């Protein structure tokens, strides 16, 4: 796991670099330096299995799966042992299976990594990149076995993330997001507020 974690962190950073360059941020190096020196990298392992499913069913009507959400990250790299991850396609509003069709046919997605844009990249890019809305479909009650490993790269806990000051070589004219940190996200979650955090950051009009 240690080696995998290191490799996915390196992969995320090497993906982030051209993404920032694509925004024509005059000098992306200080941003990248912040991520590499003070950023957070977390690994989350989700195990969806029949025992847990049955336990949930006996207690309530709940079923295993994850409802639609975006990640708090800059970038998430996800490994799944079998299909189940769906991503919302903003162009037509339909959910798309994140595994390639050939993998679905073969019943596995072991050799593929999914890369998801998270909220922090949406804010930093002033909405040019949009956080990927994703969900995990519910397991069948009698045949549920799935593991996913998420590698979550973000700025540090107290870094206030806001639209980058200069993009496309010009001054940023109008920021569409408020600047907030991960600590603000934790306060938001603790407050019991139902609105997704990213929606509280968007500045309308
Ligand atoms: O299990 C998965 O495929 C996705 C998990 C996920 O979205 C998350 O941990 O944020
Ligand atoms: Fe997620």
From TrEMBL:
For molecular function, the Gene Ontology terms on record are: L-ascorbic acid binding; metal ion binding; oxidoreductase activity
Q: Which residues form the Fe2OG dioxygenase domain?
A: 36-155
Q: Which residues form a coiled coil?
A: none
Q: Which domain of life is it from?
A: Eukaryota
Entry-linked PROSITE patterns = FE2OG_OXY
Q: Which UniProt keywords apply?
A: Iron, Metal-binding, Oxidoreductase, Vitamin C
* SUPFAM superfamilies attached to this UniProt entry: Clavaminate synthase-like
Q: Does the keyword Mitochondrion apply?
A: no
Q: Record's family?
A: Belongs to the iron/ascorbate-dependent oxidoreductase family.
Q: What is this protein called?
A: Fe2OG dioxygenase domain-containing protein
């Amino acid at each position: 796991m240690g080696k995998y974690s290191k490799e996915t962190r390196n992969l995320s950073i090497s993906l982030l670099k051209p993404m920032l360059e694509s925004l024509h941020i005059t000098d992306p190096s200080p941003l990248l330096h912040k991520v590499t020196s003070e950023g957070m990298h977390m690994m989350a392992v989700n195990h969806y299995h029949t025992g847990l499913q049955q336990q949930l069913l006996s207690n309530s009507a709940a079923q295993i799966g994850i409802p639609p959400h975006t990640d708090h990250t800059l970038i998430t790299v996800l490994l799944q042992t079998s299909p189940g991850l769906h991503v919302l396609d903003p162009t037509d509003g339909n959910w798309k299976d994140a595994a390639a069709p050939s993998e679905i046919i073969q019943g596995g997605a072991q050799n593929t990594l999914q890369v998801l844009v998270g909220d922090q990249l949406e804010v930093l890019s002033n909405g040019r990149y949009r956080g990927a809305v994703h969900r995990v479909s519910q397991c069948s009650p009698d045949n549920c076995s799935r593991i996913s490993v998420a590698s979550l790269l973000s700025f540090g806990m107290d870094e206030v993330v806001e639209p980058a000051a200069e993009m496309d070589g010009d001054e940023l004219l109008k920021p569409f997001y408020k600047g907030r940190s991960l600590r603000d996200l934790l306060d938001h979650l603790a407050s019991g507020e139902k609105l997704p955090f990213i929606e509280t950051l968007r500045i309308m009009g």
